[in-house]
Amino acid sequence: MESALLGYFLEFGKSFLQIVATLLPIMNPPSGAAMFLSVTEGASAKTRHALANSISRNCFLMLIIFILLGSVVLKFFGISKDIVLIGGGLLVVKMGWGLVNADSSTPKHDEQLADSYTPEKIQQTAFFPLSFPMTVGPGTLAVCITVGASFAGSTVSITVARLLGGLLGIISLAIIVRVCYGYAEKLMDMLGETGAVVFLRIAAFILLCLGIQLIWNGMASAITELYHQMIIPLASSTNPPVAPPMPAPAAQ
Questions:
Q1: Where are the beta strands (DSSP E) in 58-128?
Q2: Is residue 94 part of a domain?
């Protein structure tokens, strides 16, 4: 009994560490906090905390859904993981390019910007682009589908233990996102004005490169799969195997 409980606890811990160690570097909440601060420039602290709450909740729901049902949803709509990477990469590139070329020297009226963040604006921007693809991008969702497939165990108890560990890992990621986004301004204040501008530019450039990398990965995988589906069968059909020569008749 004790050995069985220890085995379940180990499976629980492995799935928890797998979720956190795999998704945390991809999501990168500290870098996302810089993007969040840039996109919501001029908004009040209360508005940012409200947005942070909504974003963390959206991220939690997206991760849970794609871990449990990601493969089923993609198969239902006939969408491959490569297309998800390419489409999401285009969105990330668009956002990164806009942030890289943002004019930081133009003075902005903070009060006007703060007034523009109405509850309706918060609801509109909390999911897109702040939750997706800025925080949870296509790369994160593709990894969720892969990780979710690995949770299936040989018994129901092992599967449940892995799912519970993954659930705790997702909750931990949502809390990290909430803290980083809710206190993004304080994090940037630690860098100073010049350091914050430099960090924002670097983070925007990394976001742009990440989008290009997602497109590249999706296209490379799609081309490779197309090659295996079309070129190799065509080559094998045009070059049929040569039958071995018939043995010479024995001498009489």
A1: none
A2: yes
Supply 219's token pair: 């296209």
Torsion, Cα 115 116 120 122, to 10 degrees, reads -90
The proportion of the chain whose per-residue pLDDT surpasses 90, expressed as a percent, equals: 22
Q: How far apart are CA 150 and CA 144, in angstroms?
A: 10
**Contact assessment for residue 173 and residue 19, using Cβ atoms and an 8 Å cutoff:** yes
The answer to whether residue 173 is domain-embedded is yes
Query: Which stretches within 101-191 are classed as H helix?
Result: 110-116, 119-125, 138-149, 156-182, 184-189
pLDDT band for position 107 (cuts 50, 70, 90)? very low
In a domain, 251, yes or no: no
Q: Which domain holds residue 69?
A: 1-234
Q: How far, CA to CA in Å, does 167 sit from each of 76, 135, 147, 151?
A: 25, 18, 12, 11
Give the whole-angstrom CA distance, residue 31 versus residue 75: 33
Domain-embedded: residue 252:
no
Q: Is 149 helix (H, G, I), strand (E, B) or coil?
A: helix
| Per-residue pLDDT tens digits for 110-135 | 444 445 666 677 777 889 888 998 89
Judge contact between 96 and 207, C-beta under 8 A: yes
Structural domain total, the chain? 1
Q: Is the pLDDT of residue 177 over 90?
A: yes
Q: What does the alpha-carbon distance between residue 228 and residue 175 come to, in Å, rounded to a whole number?
A: 43
Alpha-carbon distances of 18 from 69, 146, 148, 166, rounded to whole Å: 18, 11, 11, 8
